[in-house]
């Protein structure tokens, strides 16, 4: 098993384990690796430092103190709980229409089918076309639980 540091095209960084480098490449080629934050399939390996065993433990040099230490974004348990609650509420009170989201939303907007709360998936160009047509849609800040690991 190997752990890769990954990054999506939106800049979200995350780690994931794979059977090996070939398994990672195979999953990437089949668009089966998704960002856990935004669901993007545009995932690449982030810059990593390999862990190499040198036989004897080596003393690590002490880095000089930073004059301007980097700021880090702290994860907020409260924000994560609120996002989880939002996801649960949407999934409990809406119908998941999957990849037919764009056509279903358009049909409801045009009055071809009755309105109902839905959520699903759309390609960026489909979402843009819906917005240009005046269909009220917005991206959700999570991927459906059925699509996440």
Describe this structure in words.
The protein is of the alpha+beta class. It has 2 domains: 2-45, no CATH class; 77-142, no CATH class. Helix content is 31%, strand content 15%. The chain contains 4 helices and 5 strands. It has helices at 21-29, 77-93, 101-110, 124-133; strands at residues 2-8, 13-18, 43-45, 95-98, 118-120. The strands form 2 sheets. It has a 3-stranded antiparallel sheet. It has a two-stranded parallel sheet with strand order 4-5. The longest helix is centred in the middle third of the chain and has 17 residues, at 77-93. The model has no long low-confidence stretch (mean pLDDT 83).
Strand order of the largest sheet: 2-1-3
Order of helices and strands: EEHEHEHEH
The computed structural class is alpha+beta
Biggest sheet statistics: 3 strands, antiparallel
Please estimate the helix content: 25-40%
Instruction: Count the domains.
Output: 2
Counting H and I runs of at least 4 residues, what is the number of helices? 4
Stretches where pLDDT is under 50 for at least 5 consecutive residues are none
DSSP strand content: 15-25%
Q: Tally of extended strands?
A: 5
Shape, principal axes of CA atoms: elongated
Output mean pLDDT.
Answer: 83
Rg calc: 21 Å
For the terminal residues, how far apart are their CA atoms? 18 Å
